[in-house]
Design goal:
4 strands, four-stranded antiparallel beta sheet, alpha+beta
Length: 85
């Protein structure tokens, strides 16, 4: 029984570390103005002065603004909304 608990604990630890690595990779991709490497889906929102891409990832979102008023990336948690309308 103790061995099973150690195995489960090790698996959970590896999953947490793996998730943290994925989030950090995408975070540094965004800081370098590159698209995310891990992405479930994305949506494009059209505006009169350009567009915004919303990348939905594993527990977080990345917004890429390609507009006349702003040209940037933004990193946020899954509950984040488009901020620069």
């Amino acid at each position: 029984m103790k061995i099973l608990k150690k195995i489960i604990s090790a698996l959970i630890t590896l999953l947490i570390i793996g998730y943290a690595v994925i989030v950090l990779i995408d975070f540094f991709q965004v800081r370098a103005s590159k698209e995310p490497m891990v992405c479930k889906s994305y949506e494009t929102h059209e505006y009169a002065d350009g567009k915004t891409l919303e990348y939905k990832c594993l527990g977080y979102k990345i917004f890429k603004y390609e507009r006349q008023s702003i040209n940037a990336y933004e990193f946020g948690f899954f509950i984040s909304e488009k901020g620069k309308d």
